[in-house]
């Protein structure tokens, strides 16, 4: 009698192959669907980086070209304002010296040199105020230009208001220049209007808005 005969009813039952059970360590997963990347283990999948509201634009990696141009214009305007402020200070000092000399020449309250000295002192004070305003605006122009790199909504709104006011002032000077009929009186106001318009528009266009809305870490 042979126990090796598979047809022998007295022999041992045939061995069944072991069923494939679940492995150890990680749960079994169904094969991925076509076009779907396999999921990793250990950490949850990170969501895709969201776009900005109103569009699918990704995070800008560098400052947009229009903002770079506006930044350069701010620096140019600050240089003009610094020169204007220094010039006004020089004029104020000159007027003050003239008024002091006129005051030294007066002999009574009815003397015309007395009124000239008083008017000169007042004019010198007004010119000093104008010089300080010009230097203050120059400081603001430089600060805004520097803050373009890391500034947020506050810098954006301030730049828009500052550029709009500069454009209005340039338009007023342009109208005065056109009224005089001299080309030399038109060129500078026209450049001022162009600079102010670009500074106003750069933070408003979608690329500028995305730049100032970008996350900062």
Describe it.
The relative contact order is 0.12. Helix 3 runs antiparallel to helix 4. The chain is mainly alpha-helical and 217 residues long. The chain is 60% helix and 0% strand. It has five helices and no strands. About 6% of the residues have low confidence.
The share of residues in extended strands comes to: under 5%
Helix content: 55-70%
Count of runs of 4 or more consecutive helical residues: 5
Low-confidence stretches: 46-57
> Which H/E pattern describes the elements?
HHHHH
- C-alpha Rg (nearest Å): 39 Å
End-to-end span in angstroms?
84 Å
Shape: elongated
How many strands in all? 0
Largest sheet entry: none
Structural class by SSE content: mainly alpha
The average pLDDT is 78
Features:
elongated, single chain, 217 residues, mainly alpha, 60% helix
Blueprint (SSEs and pairs):
Elements: H1 65-105, H2 112-147, H3 153-180, H4 184-201, H5 206-213
Helix pairs in contact: 1-2, 1-4, 3-4
Summarize the structure.
The protein has helices at residues 65-105, 112-147, 153-180, 184-201, 206-213. It is built from 5 helices and no strands.
């Amino acid at each position: 009698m042979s126990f090796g005969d598979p047809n022998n009813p007295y022999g041992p039952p045939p061995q069944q192959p072991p069923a494939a059970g679940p492995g150890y360590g990680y749960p079994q997963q169904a094969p991925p669907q076509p076009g779907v990347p396999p999921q990793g283990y250990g950490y949850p999948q990170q969501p895709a980086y969201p776009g900005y509201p109103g569009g699918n634009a990704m995070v800008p990696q560098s400052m947009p070209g229009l903002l770079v141009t506006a930044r350069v214009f701010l620096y140019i305007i600050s240089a003009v304002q610094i020169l204007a402020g220094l010039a006004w200070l020089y004029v104020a000092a000159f007027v003050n010296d003239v008024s002091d000399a006129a005051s030294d020449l007066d002999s009574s309250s009815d003397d015309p040199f007395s009124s000239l000295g008083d008017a000169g002192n007042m004019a010198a004070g007004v010119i000093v105020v104008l010089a300080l305003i010009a230097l203050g605006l120059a400081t603001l122009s430089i600060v805004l230009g520097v803050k373009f790199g890391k500034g947020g909504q506050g810098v954006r709104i301030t730049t828009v208001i500052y550029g709009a006011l500069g454009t209005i002032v340039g338009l007023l000077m342009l109208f005065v220049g056109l009224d005089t009929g001299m080309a030399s009186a038109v060129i500078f106001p026209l450049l001022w209007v162009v600079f102010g318009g670009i500074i106003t528009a750069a933070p408003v266009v979608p690329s500028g808005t995305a730049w100032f809305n970008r996350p900062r870490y």
